[in-house]
Design brief:
Layout: H1 2-32, H2 45-75, E1 80-84, E2 89-93, H3 95-101, E3 112-113, H4 114-117, H5 121-133, E4 137-143, E5 159-167, E6 173-179, H6 181-216, H7 224-252, E7 260-264, H8 265-282, E8 286-292, E9 296-300, H9 301-318, E10 324-336, E11 342-352, H10 396-406, E12 410-415, E13 422-428, E14 431-433, E15 437-440
Parallel strand pairs: 8-10
Antiparallel strand pairs: 1-2, 1-6, 2-3, 4-5, 5-6, 7-9, 8-15, 9-14, 10-11, 11-13, 12-13
């Protein structure tokens, strides 16, 4: 009886152990199911588990090495980089970012609020915008560094920074920083050098022109044509020098001193056209105006006259013979969100010709200095221009843009879908009076 009880107990114990092994195997099979494609199915479960653990450990080491490699690359990159968490706490930044932002108080491994370390509300707002919009954002501003050491303050200079950030997982944000100040300093030094050179060139060019004028009246044909050509080249150089000086002055002082006064737009355009009409008659060109007749804007009359002189002169140069140049004016209204959401009238002027228009490659660069565009658009050679004509130098549209920006306006270059010619759209604020719309030709 005792032996029978012992055998029965042993059988129950063995059965319970076998049941536990079955349950353990089923559990391991469920755990290892995601990795079953990359392992040998013939291996027992425990050796397979050990192999998977070893594989995961190796992958973890490889990922740590890759992360360290990327971190080393960012640390020695010529551009600054910083990363913040969802609460705008600085998690990490490279050496270049520490130098740009003067982060002497931050040490690697510290987690501190970025605004405590860097007194730049522009950077803080940029990070918030990136997190809210979940899109990459770019911002440029003048950064004024601070230092805990009062002795360093006189030596610390402000700099222009450009930051480009992108959203990261878990509310984090990564920001790349670029110090733009060295490039701006080089550009300013270049502009000063060119301006000094232009000032020095004005006197000898004027002297050369006086000598050419004297020779022009003393030489008989056909020799006088060489003097005419010399006069044209000298005039082109004088126009280039004067244009460069004017553009440099405007760019150095974007908020130039304007003599604002009420200006009637249609009368101004008619006056400009009368000045250019001798050039237009050579190609049998006409001008048509449509829109309100009595539009008054608050502007510097001499500067706005220069704007339309350059624009209409370009239209004459590039229009096909016996065509019409259109000037369309209209009043639009916009809501000013900066001043109590008030409604302000704005003048929109569209200058449209029937020439060859702009090439797609030229359009992004039309208002850059010295950009002349597609040579195929020029249908007249230098020899066809009279001495009194306006000679292009690649600065006219750049000056136009700067003058309009100084007035709070803008300009856009396009190709008109109907005429195929150039389409210049000018926006001018400060409309002070207008009457009902009419059409004039």
């Amino acid at each position: 009886m005792f032996l029978l009880g012992f055998i029965l107990g042993l059988a129950v114990g063995i059965g319970f152990w076998i049941w536990q092994q079955v349950q353990l195997n089923r559990y391991l099979e469920r755990v290892l199911q995601p990795y079953s494609k990359s392992t040998d199915l013939a291996l027992p479960l425990l050796p397979r588990l050990r192999q998977e653990i070893k594989t995961l450990q190796q992958q973890r080491q490889d990922l740590q090495k890759s992360l360290q490699t990327y971190q080393d690359l960012l640390d020695f990159a010529p551009m600054g980089y910083l990363q913040v968490d969802e609460e705008n706490q600085l998690l990490w930044c490279n050496q270049q970012a520490r130098e740009i932002l003067y982060l002497q108080r931050w040490q690697p491994g510290q987690v501190r609020l970025l605004l405590e370390l860097v007194r730049s509300y522009e950077l803080d707002r940029l990070i918030e915008q990136i997190r809210d919009r979940q899109k990459p954002q770019t911002k440029e501003w003048l950064f004024h560094p601070s230092s805990d050491n009062p002795a360093e303050l006189p030596t610390i200079k402000s700099m222009t920074l450009r930051a480009s950030g992108l959203p990261l997982p878990n509310g984090q944000v990564g920001v790349f920083l670029e110090n733009r100040q060295p490039l701006l300093d080089v550009n300013q030094e270049r502009d000063r050098s060119f301006s000094d050179l232009a000032h020095e060139l004005r006197t000898p060019l004027t002297s050369i022109r006086l000598v050419a004028e004297t020779l022009q009246h003393r030489l008989e044909p056909p020799l006088n044509r060489w003097v005419d050509r010399l006069m044209q080249e000298v005039d082109r150089l004088i126009s280039l020098v004067q244009g460069w000086l004017e553009l440099t002055q405007i760019e150095a002082n974007p908020k130039m001193q304007l003599h604002l006064e009420p200006v009637e737009v249609r009368s101004l355009i008619v006056s400009v056209w009368e000045t250019l009409e001798p050039l237009a008659q050579r190609q049998h060109l006409s001008l048509s105006y449509s829109g309100p007749e009595d539009i008054w804007i608050k502007a510097d009359q001499a500067r706005i006259y220069q704007v339309f002189l350059n624009l209409l002169d370009n239209s004459i140069k590039y229009s096909s013979p016996s065509t019409n140049i259109q000037v369309e004016a209209k009043i639009t209204f916009f809501e000013d969100h900066h001043q109590d959401n008030s409604i302000h009238p704005t003048l929109e002027l569209n200058l449209i010709d029937s020439g060859t228009g702009f090439s797609e490659a030229d359009l992004p660069h039309i208002f850059e200095r010295f950009y002349r565009g597609d040579k195929a658009r020029t249908h007249s050679s230098l020899a066809d221009n009279s001495i009194g004509s306006i000679v292009g130098n690649g600065l006219g549209l750049a000056i136009v843009r700067q003058i309009l920006l100084a007035h709070g306006g803008s300009i856009k270059a396009m190709n008109h879908p109907q005429t195929g010619g150039a389409w210049m759209q000018v926006i001018l604020p400060e409309v002070v009076a207008n009457s009902q719309s009419q059409d004039y030709s």
